[in-house]
Amino acid sequence: MIDVRDVSKSFGDTAVLHNVTLSVDRGEVVVLIGPSGSGKSTLLRTISLLDRPNQGTITVDGVCVFGPDKAGGARGARSGNVGMVFQQFNLFPHLTALGNVTLALRLVKKLSKREAAEFAGAALARVGLADKGHSYPSQLSGGQQQRVAIARSLAMEPAVMLFDEVTSALDPELVSEVTHVMRQLAKDGMTMIVVTHEMKFAREAADRVVFMNEGRIVEEGHPEAIFTDPTHVRTRQFLHRVLDV
């Protein structure tokens, strides 16, 4: 479903990704872990083409969206094949939850108001917010706002969902309601790449855990293998600190 080959990305003189190669199968949940500044979020942003790589090839759902011979590659990733949810909710405060979800459906997919409302209502129901369609962001908790942001992406019917630290801005008590939605998406077979510091979620929900450090993939494998018997010293150091063991 996702094939990243030899992708590098620099911002000015600062190299953030170094020849990263990663493949994700259809329906697989891959969780990226690692210290801040290791390139996890930048990797997601290159897959979605929010940041264009300096080199490499990216294929999503059989379509090359970036590569040396690909002209206008941004169209593939931005046509709805890839949904991305960020740490910040980025909801329009003057629109209801339903209005926030229908906006892209009407502007990008050119659906009628009625069609967009049907898609949006189904997406809000999928994240447990069927009764909050007419609520404004200020009337919702942080966890509910993040679930609206997830519904906004789901309504576009993406083939792939990318989650970038979506629980980092939430109070601890609200984290579980968002990770519950993500777990359900995983059970439903959604292909997902998740950047998170929630090690419990990584251990329980991931099919594969990928540890990144200094813009490189250092180690990857089944969650139990990574968390109980990592092979790389840098992985062991990181897990020792974050798990406090």
UniProtKB/TrEMBL annotation:
> SUPFAM superfamilies attached here?
P-loop containing nucleoside triphosphate hydrolases (SSF52540)
* Superkingdom assignment: Bacteria
Organism, by scientific name, is Candidatus Aeolococcus gillhamiae
Q: PROSITE patterns, from UniProt? A: ABC_TRANSPORTER_1 (PS00211), ABC_TRANSPORTER_2 (PS50893)
Q: Which family does it belong to?
A: Belongs to the ABC transporter superfamily.
Leader sequence range is: none
Q: Which Pfam families match?
A: ABC_tran (PF00005)
- Protein name, entry field: Amino acid ABC transporter ATP-binding protein
Q: What keywords appear on the UniProt entry?
A: ATP-binding, Nucleotide-binding, Transport
Where the record annotates domain ABC transporter, the positions are 2-239
Which InterPro entries does this chain map to?
A: AAA+_ATPase, ABC_ATPase_HisP-typ, ABC_transporter-like_ATP-bd, ABC_transporter-like_CS, MetN_ABC_transporter-like, P-loop_NTPase
Molecular function per GO: ABC-type amino acid transporter activity; ATP binding; ATP hydrolysis activity
Question: Which Gene3D superfamilies does the annotation name?
Answer: P-loop containing nucleotide triphosphate hydrolases
